[in-house]
What we know:
Layout: H1 3-42, H2 49-62, H3 69-93, E1 108-109, E2 115-116, E3 122-126, H4 133-145, E4 150-152, H5 170-182, E5 186-190, H6 197-201, E6 206-209, H7 217-224, E7 230-233, H8 240-252, E8 258-262, H9 280-287, E9 292-295, H10 306-315, E10 320-324, H11 342-362
Parallel strand pairs: 3-4, 3-10, 4-5, 5-6, 6-7, 7-8, 8-9, 9-10
Antiparallel strand pairs: 1-2
The chain binds phosphoenolpyruvate and manganese (II) ion (MN).
Amino acid sequence: MSSTNRLKELRDEIDPINLQILELLNKRAEIALEIGKVQQEKGTQIYDPQREAEMLTALQYANGGPFSNETISKLFNEIFRATLNLEEQDARQAILVQRKQPDQHTIIEFSNGLRLGNDTFEVIAGPCAVESYEQMDQVAAVLAQRGVKMIRGMGYKPRTSPYDFQGMGEEGLKIARQVANKHDMMVISEVLDMSLIPMMDEYVDAFWVGARNMQNSFLLRALGKQKKPVLLKRSFGATLKEFIYAAEYIMASGNEQVILMERGIRAFSQWTRNTLDISAVPLLKKETHLPVFVDISHSAGRRDIANPLGRVARVSGADGLMVEVHPHPDVAMSDAKQQLDLDEFNSLMDDVESISMRQKQSV
Ligand code: PEP
Ligand code: MN
């Protein structure tokens, strides 16, 4: 037989073997997916390094060559990695926050016509904390003029030091409610502890979970039992997976109205309070069906870069931004360095709106 013929014959032998391996790989993947489902039901981890080590040992023991044990390990490690990816992808599909179809969008509607999560770009604004009726009223008047329909009505502040201003408490919520009613706005406010929910429910239109409480599963579950929307901020130390699962706690407890907010993560930047992880926006939009907001105040911790960050938030595909506004930021009782004064807020809005118009024209 000529060597050309011999080559063809050998190649003809290889082709069906490839198909057999292919079939076996997919058969193996199907069984692995079943295993993943059982593990989810049992609540155990999909990744089981001990099981992988046992399989590799068995394969090396059975290996008769010509592949070395090292090569066999490499090949099977690739199979294990691919299988794990598949199982994790499948597990994500099973969670409620995960986007199931490209056009699946949660839209949250409020009684004053505000809609979060549709094609518009909404702004949530207001002082870091409620300090007085006059302060809230002055801010709300300017916000209302610019079409802002939701005000921060913060009665309780999570402060680093217990000696710093902790918020006006219920008195602050009363003021926020009064001012919001006057200007036809919705009130959103941070719940620091689940015991505050019934009282706060009297005053607010939406609850807010701060970065420090993102993984407080008792609080998340309690808010999951409420009828009002919940805005969940990303913790400064949380991965996106942890953030998504925190939102899942709220949804799995029965509340589907969840808004996600990126507020900066802790990195090594010394010139900003946190580092705005803008990639979180397209990733959260891609992975979940929930509205995604960007906090341009706590991410930067400084007001001088509010406008560029606002523009960035707009073009990132976010459903809106959150910004702190105070009539006299320098004498604010919290976050004095980052709050915008009323003129600066107007300038931010001019900037952000100019981008919206340009974007709309180009579509
Ligand atoms: C806030 O927005 O009032 C706040 C305290 O922010 P964070 O929870 O992101 O620190
Ligand atoms: Mn603040």
